[in-house]
Amino acid sequence: MTHPDLAGALRAVLPADCVLSRDEELHPYECDGLPVFRQRPAVVVLPRDAQQVRQVLRTCSELNVPVVARGSGTGLSGGATPHAQGVLLSCARMNRILEIDPLGRTARLEPGVPNLRVSEAAAVHGLYYAPDPSSQVACSIGGNVAENSGGVHCLKYGLTVHNVLGVRGFTMDGEPLDLGSRASDGPGLDLLALTIGSEGLLMVVTEVTVKLLARPPCVRLVMASFSEVHRAGDAVAAVIAAGIIPAAMEMMDRKATAAVEPFVHAGYDLSAAAILLIEADGSDEEVAGQVAEIEAVLRDAGASTMCVASSERERALFWSGRKNAFPAAGRLAPDYYCMDGTIPRRHIGKVLDAITAMESRYDLSCMNVFHAGDGNLHPVILFDANEAGSWERAERFGAEILELCVQLGGTITGEHGVGVEKLNSMCVQFSPAERAAFLAVKEAFDPAGLLNPGKVIPTLARCAEYGRMRVHGGALPHADLPRF
Amino acid sequence: MSAAPEAILAGLREQVCAAHAQHQPLRVRGAGTKDFYGESVSGEVLDVCAWSGIVAYDPSELVITARCGTRLSQIERALAEHAQMLAFEPPRFGGDPSMGGVIAAGLSGPRRPYAGAARDFVLGATLLSARGEVLRFGGQVMKNVAGFDVSRLLCGSLGVLGVITEVSLKVLPLPRAQTTLRLELPAAGAIEAFNRWAGEPVPLSAAAWSRGCAWVRLSGAPAAVRAAQERLGGEVVDATHAGEFWDALRDCRLPLFGRDALWRLSVPSATPMLELPGEPLIDWGGALRWYADPPAQYDIRALAVAAGGTAQCWRGAAPAGRFHPLPPAVATVHARLKQRFDPHGIFNPGRLVTGL
């Protein structure tokens, strides 16, 4: 039950314009980037600084009210889905860049700063912030910390966890917690690593210090076509085996290129079963050498055609199709469902074959874009939510892909997080004892269990129920019946 | 002939379960190269050396998985055969550490500021818990955000949460070319130069200062190394001599490490020279400063804190513990984690944090 005067209690500690409680004000916050999960929160708060965040947490702690923190709401796993009786804490107004240290190559940021703005602000010093999720125009640094966000350049530059030096914030009961620093290491357990990717279950972050890198003076993009998906997969492995770590290595299958080409006119080879986009960056000399090596490896691996973007404009054009793959899916079907499994690279071909088989079984189409360099798949399942049973089939299709990823030694989520979406799949990837360890971590930070409850760690009962629904081999009995 | 692998793991489990049941402390130990490291710890030795071997290594996946007792030399040999390496250059302290120990200590060598620390390369880990369960976290893939990042938490945990029985690490190709330059520079000038170069597209792979000289290692594509070498200037050090210097720095075997009292200060890399007498040894492009035998009237911890870092007493009398004290809220989380992972306090009690 919602606390009778939650909004009043919050208005007592925050300026009036920081507390929203009227139905029409709450409406925009009822979902994040995965709109199939919707929930109206009891109250939304929009604090302007760390002290106001602390007041919110103290108040909610005293009243035993759940708190869900939210950045820009671009997350794809329902991690910021509100709690019906809880407070949704939006960091949108805390969007200042507090400091950029060009010599030490760090930036101190409030959590609501959009990812891309960091690189824009650092550009004058020849520096940038490496992680670049495809939503980087909108997604916030605080959200990136919560999700351990990746992007297309992770193979060479790592994820958020490799690029964040420290976070500052509060535990649920309002105690200040300062983890990591601008120094390289510190005493005790690496709680910073634990917090990054914790999906808002452990603490609320009010300040983030990130590492900035020297912007490479030269960037070039190679595009190659393959007549078979397996060959493209083998080519990816061959590039790595040749001792090359490209800045990015992306794959799109024919369905994906066909979906985006009419939209962006990137000049993709629509006759190819798959295309690879491979980027090299560094000094002029270094890039020239690396591009030549990449071309040689791809030729040996059986690329049918190959070209190097001749200008910055053409490079941006080649990328535009990849970066617009998800919106393009929206042109093919009323709704789409993007998955995020990761597999050892050697299984790329096997997984794509299996997905093709699943398409006919679930009677749904699926296009594949893929961070091939790090084995991170983004199958995009197309469906129509207005058609009875369509979403349920899409959801089961997605779950089966994730189970296959686990079977092949991979994981159910590479960069989008578990949220509410993959709670069932967590039962597949982790044993009860492992899930108990996650719960132990949660309790160590938030003994009352009020921060983003119901996300990431499935209950025993939920896993038991899910186990009963599954049969061996991953297929569900009576796959045509809708389930809720 | 050694025992069958399952029997070895079963033996470790048995010893852990018995210790848990009897509330008896265990001192988890691999090759013993870091017996000196951390707070002193008592307890029956849990020797993990026999649980060894490379479990999986596919060079094109850039991942190696090994059991905790596997020696670092075996890993590095296997990687070198495919022109790959552990880029964080774990220190060996003149011995041949076990992989479990490398990850439990979480220490990194000279390449750390440019390639990443041990924790940055951990992709997955298996934990033998106090209750005898074998728990797997992370995996063998580069990107993995399923559940909390417990495998990275274990890196640097000094074994206080359980026994790390297996680890999966990201590996990188060996650089095609490598050159070491030596430049005569005062320490303050070297710190400034290291930081400036790191903000430019220079292929740095190590930057240290010792006894009046800056040592800079460049690694990468031959053309990039050549171009940077011309830009930075200084004297090219021959490969043998350079290798000896970086190995000695990595393994803490330079003359300074022989002194009686030694402090390790981890500070933001561009921190100016600290107000401490005596010449430091500087590593990590300025982010790591070693000071030997500092006079008693200096409060080293306070100096490190003022610079935004922390100080660790590496060797010698340790006022209030070897490691820098934890802030209260952080200490609370530590205590709760320990309580939940190891309720009877059997694993390396007190080694990472006094009383924990």
Describe the structure.
The complex is a heterodimer of chains A (484) and B (356). Chain A is α+β, with helices and mostly antiparallel strands. Chain A is 37% helix and 19% strand. Chain A contains 18 helices and 18 strands. Chain A has helices at residues 6-11, 23-26, 50-63, 115-122, 141-147, 154-157, 160-163, 191-195, 229-241, 254-264, 284-300, 312-323, 325-332, 348-362, 390-407, 423-429, 432-445, 460-469, and strands at residues 19-20, 43-45, 67-70, 87-90, 97-101, 106-109, 127-128, 164-170, 176-180, 204-211, 213-214, 218-226, 248-253, 274-282, 305-308, 335-338, 365-371, 376-383. In chain A, the strands form four sheets. A seven-stranded antiparallel beta sheet of chain A has the order 15-12-14-13-17-18-16, sandwiched between helices. Chain A has a five-stranded antiparallel beta sheet with strand order 5-6-10-8-9. A four-stranded mixed beta sheet of chain A has the order 1-2-4-3. Chain B is α+β, with helices and mostly antiparallel strands and 356 residues long. Chain B has helices spanning 5-22, 72-81, 99-105, 112-115, 118-121, 150-154, 187-198, 222-232, 239-250, 300-306, 328-341, and strands spanning 26-29, 44-47, 54-58, 63-67, 84-85, 122-128, 134-138, 163-170, 172-173, 177-184, 204-210, 213-220, 235-237, 262-266, 281-283, 288-292, 310-315. In chain B, the strands form five sheets. In chain B, strands 3-4-8-6-7 form a five-stranded antiparallel beta sheet. A four-stranded antiparallel beta sheet of chain B has the order 11-12-10-13. The mean pLDDT of chain B is 96. The chains are: A alpha+beta (484), B alpha+beta (356). At the A-B interface, strand 9, helix 8, helix 9, helix 11 and helix 16 of A face strand 7, helix 6, strand 9, helix 7 and helix 8 of B.
